[in-house]
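Researcher: Let's continue the batch. This sequence belongs to TetR/AcrR family transcriptional regulator, and it's 215 residues. Same format as the previous ones, please.
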Amino acid sequence: MTTSATQRRARTPQTERVETTQRKIIDSALALLREGGFKSATLQAIARGADVSLGALQHHFESRDALMERLVIEVMEPLSDQGTVWPDKALPLRERAEAFVTLAWDNIFGAANYQAAWSMFFGCKASPSLFDRVDARRVHVDSVFYTRFLDVFPEIAAHHPRPQGFAAMAFAILRGTGVLELFEVGEQERQGSLDALVEAIVQAGTPQAGGGAAA
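Model: Same format as before. Here are the structure tokens for TetR/AcrR family transcriptional regulator:
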């Protein structure tokens, strides 16, 4: 046991170095995607931006496709079941809706990395194998999001006639608003979209006179 504990301690600095290097590579790739698009994010350019050799980069990510897949996971991680966008279920419906929209926007859809991810999504269409893997990841993330969304907002599952469709719509609104950030969007327009989503969530989770989910 002592030997094992010593080995774990001995591995820690190496693990930290690996994580630090990978973080630099990921940040460099995201910066290139934001500033120059998919074509600019070559392995050589990413290595230069991360201040590592091309060989070191390929030691951590054997190919450009492998790195791009990691970027998809990186951008979408906050949407996972244990991600950072989900508010306390004990909050009242309106407060929960406001917290969710704010957290989702600040942590994912309004973040610069999300716009970088769209450059990658469009760019990797030319690589069918990579695009298929990215799409498979999207399907998984969407499924997790819909399930978690309805868990956090059980009122929608109880009172809306198409709860799964509403969850998909909420995701589509956030995603579409995020994509528009590629252009010049005024604060009033942006906030109006987010406020409208909050109102839609509250309305979807509120029993309607004369009917509910069965209406």
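Researcher: Any comment?
Model: Residues 2-36 form the longest helix (35 residues).
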